[in-house]
Amino acid sequence: MVSDSKVYLLRYIPQHPLYLALFALTAYFVINRIRQYWRLRQFKGPFSTGISWIWHSKAVLSRNAHIYYGDVNEKYGTIARIGPNHLLTSSPELWSHINAVRSPYTRSAWYYHSARFEPGKDNVFTECDNDKHDARRKKMASAYSGKENPTLEPSIDARVKELIHLIKSKYATPAASTGVSKSMDLALKFQFFTLDVISDIGLGSPFGDLKADADVNSYIKSSEEGLAIGNTSWALGLLWLRDLPIIGKAIGPSEKDEAGFGMMMAQARKLIESRKKKSTTERSDMIASFIRHGVSGDDLFHEVFEQILAGSDTTAGSLRIIMLFLMSHPRVYAKLQAEIDHAVRSGIAPASPDIVSDAQARHLPYMAAVIREAMRVHPPVVNLFSRVVPEGGDTVTVDGEEVFIPGGTLIGYSAFAMHRNNKRVYGEDAHIFRPERWMIPEEDKAGQERLKEMIKTNDLIFGYGRWVCLGKVVALIEIHKVVFELLRAFDFSLVNPHKPWNIVNSLGLFAITDMMVEVTVRE
């Protein structure tokens, strides 16, 4: 027989408010997951992605999420599932449709707010309201295009000269030397260069990293720390804690911090406040353009801070990738160097020490092919860029078939699958670095049509439509000039070909270190 106390206990447990609440919450969670699984049941993905975020958390924590994403689309199709309510696509056509100028899709707060520097405060990258984003972007467009910054290219030229001088005076070995060679971390020098460029054209004065040959403001160290923390928090689903009134201030970056984003923010604010005291007509740089077009207060601070972080990391990443593929492919290296030498001999480009202009550099077809191909095989930005499907859903055509995606679903971008592994667009050898694929004769009509599709797809590396990268123009000017001038002045070789660099992915940006090279001055 059951004792009276046990009978009482059995009757008591189900009626206790705490247990009833726990039961209700559990039931709600289970029912919600079942509903999410069922509404996206037609899309395949790794085990557990229909009911759990565990697979995605593992991918992000690995610091190689881009590889996980690429493999998913390779295995499960052009649209694959990576979470209970998240899809991933490698279709250039679908991604262009999603990002069109008048697209009803919106940015996902789940992803973009993870990139906020402060709780509740947005910049043009993290703003998820389409109307607010478009209005802010309009205020900033002139600055990024260079229309209101006549010293844009000369400022970049000055920093290129400093980069060349630093390498030649401190690290390069003379061509005829039989002495001991030096090694140099090329990844670090590129970061110095891009930080000095963005601070010069953005704030009116370079940080001085190239002249000091040091991370003067500890931006690089702080950025890596901040991105690593953000990546881990996003993977574990903890970023919502930052939005809590008391906890958010305690765990979020503070301008009183001695390291990380907080310290970066404090230094950036001082520079911005100092720059604001000067007339916008004294020097027409990017911050002056922002101010003239009505960007002010905290908005101005967050836009400039975002510019420093994203504008330097992404361009430095591109330069590292291009140079690694050049050094790893001697045939391509020699062919590009020959094109550069011919451009100087024929007068297409100026003699040293003058820096090649952007317009002159764009007349070198093989260099353009090398740059496109390197960023295709290893896209420098691999953010998920999650979008929200509009209410009511959307019927799209993928691989020749109509597919319905329910409203409220998140869908993101698979960079490696769309570019590096895309055999339909780039051919059966898509995974191979071969710049010649872009060199199609004009008389080859079928080839020219294929080239148009390749270019259209490749351009998606910089985004598309409403959300195309504002810094694209500036980044490409930097990239063309640096590649030209480095190969004109030096010969580079990898010190450790078996491990050319250390690379990790944090929130879609690559932290690349220890890219050790040997540099020889060209005669």
TrEMBL record:
Domain of life: Eukaryota
Protein name (database record): Cytochrome P450 monooxygenase ABA1
Requisite cofactors: heme
GO MF, any single term: monooxygenase activity
Residues given in the record as heme binding sites: 469
Family annotation (InterPro entries): Cyt_P450 (IPR001128), Cyt_P450_E_grp-I (IPR002401), Cyt_P450_sf (IPR036396), Cytochrome_P450_monoxygenase (IPR050121)
Pathway connected to this protein: Hormone biosynthesis
Residue stretches spanning the membrane: 12-31
Protein species of origin: Delitschia confertaspora ATCC 74209
Pfam families: p450
